[in-house]
Write a structure and sequence with these properties.
The protein is built from four helices and no strands. The chain is an all-alpha fold and 105 residues long. The chain has one domain. Helix 1 crosses helix 3, helix 1 runs parallel beside helix 4 and helix 3 packs across helix 4. The termini are far apart. 18% of the residues are buried.
Length: 105
């Protein structure tokens, strides 16, 4: 079922964001959560916005959710996941080089 798949992709996105230190607050809508964290994330915003929009349509709309939308949600999730991983790797490299610079002082 494409609708359920899109919703599941968004649930995985929320888990990934929480693991990266950006959990959604209980009283926040998906859009409020996105607005709060986008400025703090070191990733492109297109994929995360696209997946949030697809989720909103799948969850709250009676319009059809087709396999193209499901595939788009999966692709957006993979892109966000890869960007989060790259951002975390970059952050760790910066911390490592800062620690090495401090150790030599």
């Amino acid at each position: 079922d494409p609708r359920r798949a899109v919703i599941a992709c968004y649930a995985r996105l929320e888990r990934a964001l929480a693991a990266a230190g950006f959990p959604r607050r209980l009283a926040e809508t998906q859009e409020e959560h996105l607005g709060r964290i986008l400025g703090q994330l070191d990733i492109e915003t297109g994929s995360i916005r696209r997946l949030t929009d697809l989720f909103t349509r799948a969850k709250y709309s009676q319009h059809e959710v087709d396999t193209r939308m499901k595939d788009d949600a999966i692709a957006a999730l993979v892109e966000v996941r890869d960007e989060l991983r790259a951002s975390e790797a970059h952050r760790q490299e910066v911390e490592k080089s800062l620690a090495l610079g401090t150790a030599g002082s």
